[in-house]
Design brief:
With 620 residues, the protein is an alpha+beta fold. The chain has helices at 3-9, 11-62, 72-76, 79-87, 92-103, 122-125, 137-143, 155-166, 171-198, 208-225, 239-257, 259-267, 270-276, 280-301, 312-317, 328-359, 361-374, 384-388, 391-403, 445-449, 464-468, 489-506, 525-529, 559-562, 570-581, 608-612, and strands spanning 106-110, 113-116, 411-414, 420-423, 432-435, 440-443, 508-509, 516-521, 533-535, 537-539, 548-552, 586-590, 600-605. A four-stranded mixed beta sheet has the order 1-2-6-3. Bound molecules: protoporphyrin IX containing FE (HEM).
Amino acid sequence: MSSSQLFVHHPTSQSQAIRALTYGMEAAKRHATWDNILQTAYLTIASVVVYGVWLALYRVFFHPLASIPGPKLAAITTWYEKYYDVFLGAQYFRRIEEMHRQYGPVVRIRPDEVSFNDPDFIDTLSPVGGRRTTKPALVGLRTGIPDSITGTIDHDVHRRRRNAISGFFSVASIRRLEPIITAHMEKMFGRVDASIAASGAKSVVLSMHQVFRACTSDIITTYAFGENQDILGEDDWGESVTAGSNTWHNLTHVFAAFPVVLLVMRNLPQWAFRFFIPSRELDDLMERKEWWVNKVRTIRESPDPAHLKSTIFEGVLSSNLPAEEKTDARLAQEAQLIVFAGEGTVAYTLNAALYELLAHPAEYRRAREELRASLPAGEVAPSFAQVETLPFLSAVIHETMRLHPGVVSRQVRISPDQPIVYQAPAAGLSKTYVVPPGMCHSMSTRAMHLNGDVFDDPLAFRPQRWLDDPTLGRAFIAFARGTRNCIGKDMAKKLMGKVLATLLLRYDIYEGQRGPTLELYDTTRERDIDANYDMIIPMPAKGSPGLRVGEHVFDPSMRSSLGSITWNTPESAENAENAETRENCIKITLLPAKLPSSFWVRVKVSDCVLAEKGPKALTT
Ligand code: HEM
């Protein structure tokens, strides 16, 4: 029987056979498809592996930076940096310091980036003029504000943007800032004293870093917009407000490693942002940004001719920058830069300076003596001009910024047109190293500032070194150098000098004496002050302890500054009793420090309460 007959006489078997045949063909087809997919996958994987191997070999042996020393993995892949910054958590800055110790003053730290650590080469790397300087997109991504001045890639665009605001950072402009600083500083110290006094009724929460940060934030915001968000007036000294900036700083390495995260965060509508990324801190930051944008809109809609020359954003909006440079979106980024750059760095430096002075009583006393000797008797808030005449105080600020620079991330630049040529026989290098145009070069502040060839005993806090050897300034890069340096450096120096001088005049260091004093309490430099993480600004160790305790006793001379506070309440009586039972002191409980480098001081304001005995004596 032929097969055709079978089909005719056995329809079921026939259709089965057709199905079998069809199935066989489909299976064969599926097989072929799978084969194709697998083949393509193998080919792709093989190509990626071959490309990867080729790229690695190229980067190590044939790349223009191939002759520059450094770990091979750092030369091969940017994942080396990501490993330290994203997976180990903001640690690449430390690795860079190690690399310089291991490989010398010139190290290849990324496939396309060379880090230099030679004080004599700083001005060549960061010239003030004569050579165009750009930045890699990475910097803008990392800050999260690529359209701000600091994130701007192109040299000419940067010059235009910077010129539009540079007038506001001139010495003359900063002088106009002096009354604003004085007013906010008085408010800050007034509040500190008032909360110390209020602790007569209850325990008090004080974080020196947060206190400084509230003050600098209000000052910088006033300078930028003509008014501020009154962070100094917040019960928690604005801790909840500035927590948003901390969260943002914590995300900076993620932005650099995975730019898509930044892209999503910047482009999501606010409701979607809040829905998909629920974070109280980021919510607060969004609100802060809304405040900045609204301020810019108000200024744009009704410019006040009287203010046009006195606040930064009025200046930007009235400048001859093209319209696309003045959009709300771009100016919001500029606002974030100026407020973040100003508040965090200055507050961190003040915090570190106060720590170092309290940890070195001889330097504290010397700075205070210098002030008292050079100021008229009774001066309580020295002026910019008076502070400028104080060499030791200036040395204290320099030495603090050397050990604790307020910006810890490396300074990355590109020379787009000319090669960078490095010859350093002094550093024991016989070779010439060349960074071709378009490749990145960088400097790391901490590596430079802890260079033992320049700074004897580099980890020690010794302000005197700046007075003994004025040439040390050649290795100082806390404010960066060249065309991309810190635009706010003069303002920062004046602000820090004035606040520190006022603080030193106001409080002595506690050595058992009477009168307003400060004393360091349970703080270690490594844990609570030093940069443990690079979040652009430095962050202390994760285990930085929370609970600290301080004590103080009131002084009648403080009453005038306590204003309307009345102390003859049962609570104060109770605490006055407590004060007697606790070695003439009232205990102040300080809450956990959440912020970078927070530390606590013990504040004593004499023992008059005890001398007069009882609540009546506390009446103001
Ligand atoms: C102790 C205080 C300060 C320190 C240590 C500091 C440090 C720095 C550093 C290192 C840079 C360069 C960053 C880079 O390499 O990309 C920089 C840039 C900048 N800083 Fe400061 N800064 C301080 C205070 C301030 C203040 C008070 C302001 C303004 C209110 C300010 C505004 C800026 C701006 C706008 C830039 C970008 C400049 C540009 O790219 O042209 N800084 N700062």
